[in-house]
Design a protein that fits this description.
Elements: E1 2-6, H1 15-25, H2 38-42, E2 47-53, E3 56-66, E4 71-79, H3 86-104, E5 111-117, H4 135-145, E6 148-150, E7 156-157, E8 165-166, E9 169-175, E10 182-184, H5 185-195, H6 204-213, E11 218-223
Parallel strand pairs: 4-5
Antiparallel strand pairs: 1-2, 2-3, 3-4, 5-9, 6-9, 6-11, 7-8, 10-11
Length: about 220
């Protein structure tokens, strides 16, 4: 039996094993330092949950909902062990919680963003040796769920506050309407500027990407 537990403080006894799991699965530039989690976890709009098997952290997901934009963002999903149904457990609990957040804000969601590793550019990462976290597997699973990728050369600032450009991911979008073929570039710009406002150091390539998006009307959604 898996338990869905929200973490709102670095003092939560399950935060340390979660942070260790993050460091095992993701490359260093994608992991926020331990102490820097203190403030985000206290933000009511940031939802960090772990999947517990007894007292063991076996998975986790972080997400948020922007009612003014009518979009959600899945920051990460971690499956720490195979063959426990962790992925679906996290997805279904996240879906229910996001539905609740949308209802409470009287909004109808457009869809959900997620940064998705391109396996051909991320082959150097081992992702903890956990088979469900293999980027080939994850990408195909996300494609089955309905995610598409935005047609742009995507880059994002590193989460280690070093201001490096991370170029191994695509910006994905799970549209509420599966027939949606484009998204407004202005929506993407507003989302990205807000999402990465927490990182003061941004690479020039990210700034250039955002500047180009501001000169664009629509962004095509492509298959993963």
């Amino acid at each position: 039996m898996l338990t869905y537990h929200r973490i709102t403080s670095i003092k939560d006894p399950f935060f340390k094993p979660l942070h260790e799991l993050l460091g095992t699965i993701f490359p260093p530039e994608e992991v926020l330092a331990y102490d820097l989690w203190s403030e985000p976890l206290q933000d009511a709009g940031i939802h960090v949950y772990v999947a517990l098997q007894g007292d063991e952290v076996v998975g986790s997901t972080e997400y948020r909902y922007y009612p003014e934009l009518r979009v959600a963002m899945t920051d990460f999903t971690i499956i720490g062990k195979p063959s426990l149904g962790i992925g679906r457990f996290l997805m279904r609990n996240r879906e229910r919680d996001l539905q609740r957040l949308a209802q409470e804000s009287n909004t109808m969601p457009i869809g959900m963003f997620a940064e998705i590793y391109d396996p051909y550019r991320a082959e150097a990462h081992g992702f903890g040796g956990v088979s469900p976290m293999n980027p080939y597997v994850r990408r195909e699973v996300l494609s089955h769920i309905g995610y598409k990728k935005l047609n742009l050369q995507y880059v994002h600032p590193s989460w280690d506050h070093e201001g490096q450009a991370v170029t191994e991911l695509d910006l994905g979008f799970l549209p509420q309407d599966e027939n949606l073929s484009h998204v407004d570039a202005s929506l993407v710009v507003t989302f990205l500027e807000g999402y990465y406002s927490a990182l003061p150091n941004k690479p020039l390539s990210w700034l250039d990407m955002v500047a180009k998006l501001k000169e664009t009307d629509q962004i095509e959604l492509l298959p993963l």
